[in-house]
Amino acid sequence: MAVKFAKRLDNLEGSAIRELLKLTQRPEVISFAGGMPAPELFPVEEMKKVSVAVLEEQGQVALQYTTTEGYAPLREKIADRMNTKLKTNVKADDILITSGSQQGLDFAGKVFIDEGDVILCESPSYMGALNAMKAYQPKFIEIPTDNDGMIMEELEKVLATTDRVKMIYVIPDFQNPSGRTWPMERRLKFMEIINKYEIPVIEDNPYGELRFDGEFLPSLKSLDTKGLVIFLGTFSKIFCPGYRLGWTCAAPEILNKFNICKQGADLQASTISQMEVNKFMDMFDLDAHVEKIKACYRKRRDVMMKAMEEEFPDSVEFTHPQGGLFTWVILPEGINAGEMAKKCLEKDVAYVPGESFYPNGGVYNTCRLNYSNMPEDKIVEGIKRMAEVIKEELAE
Ligand code: PMP
């Protein structure tokens, strides 16, 4: 074709996960591949009542444009919820409603990144964020991680020796893809480093409220004294993703830039979606709903952990997440998780090979498993089949 595309698209490909998900649509496939919530927990009956109430009580408002910042009562509730759940001290004015937190990730790139600027991130990190930010032509530097998340000494080393670091992207709670959580000492150390270098931080936190066990840990935003942390939240995992509602919480100067991006992208998030989610919180108990989600995922996590302990060879390592949706499997060196995924798919089991979670590539023996979206018996069966394939790979 003779048309010429923008240079910024040169390094962009469709998400590997989205391609893979197409193959996992067959009903017989046991899929650990997506990051999807359990649909049987969606409050469908409640939302029928909610939508009728919104249209009967405020139909004309619901079907009209609203402000770019978002529907005021919903912003109030989000600020209150953050202050209660995450120990922040924020106001409704600090919140911009976005189309999922994914849109906030795109805006972060748009706001901070010129071609060749450096983004620091955990290695591995959420590929959806990396892909969104890639459009702004950054260079990614991956900071090594261990079982407690980003290694702060490594971060310090990189900051001390690298020019043009414009932004740090992190997921400190139940990370996607690894399921890991940073302990308190790391959070404090991180903030100390950040305050020294004064670099903006994107704290992506879709899973923080989904803690099944262990102690609550404060968000980076709640530890931020200089207005450097830009917090991204979402209703996708504590409620449902279909409304596409998330938010950005940041200092006024920064939020103003995000607001300008929002105006250009789509003017505002859907008025009726915002009003329905707001109304759900008036008519029903979101906390109780979150508890139901946690109880279900905790069981599924336990079943997956037990099955992996029983079935996987000892040379396979995996994380033990205290919340969230994912565990991360490290296969013995030499096993290629991408090749192995094809063999698993022949046995109707799917997962995401880890390679695409490393922005600079080069790691082939990891994979991400999701446990929120499959019933317990299928989790056991899927892990059994995966274990058979791993054993075959090791025997080769
Ligand atoms: N950040 C992370 C770490 C995620 O895992 C996801 C979704 N899987 C998102 C952001 C985007 O979610 P949403 O746009 O639905 O809020």
From TrEMBL:
Domain Aminotransferase class I/classII large: 49-385
An example molecular function term from Gene Ontology annotations: 2-aminoadipate transaminase activity
Cofactor(s) required for function per UniProt: pyridoxal 5'-phosphate
EC number: 2.6.1.39
GO biological process: alpha-amino acid metabolic process
Alphabetized InterPro entries for the sequence: Aminotransferase_I/II_large (IPR004839), Class-I_PLP-dep_aminotransf (IPR050859), PyrdxlP-dep_Trfase (IPR015424), PyrdxlP-dep_Trfase_major (IPR015421), PyrdxlP-dep_Trfase_small (IPR015422)
Keywords of the record: Aminotransferase, Pyridoxal phosphate, Transferase
Superkingdom classification of source: Bacteria
A Pfam family this chain is assigned to: Aminotran_1_2
CDD domains the UniProt entry points to: AAT_like
Entry's family note: Belongs to the class-I pyridoxal-phosphate-dependent aminotransferase family.
PANTHER family: AMINOTRANSFERASE, KYNURENINE_ALPHA-AMINOADIPATE AMINOTRANSFERASE, MITOCHONDRIAL
Record note on quaternary structure: Homodimer.
Protein name: 2-aminoadipate transaminase
Protein species of origin: Intestinibacter bartlettii
Gene: lysN_4
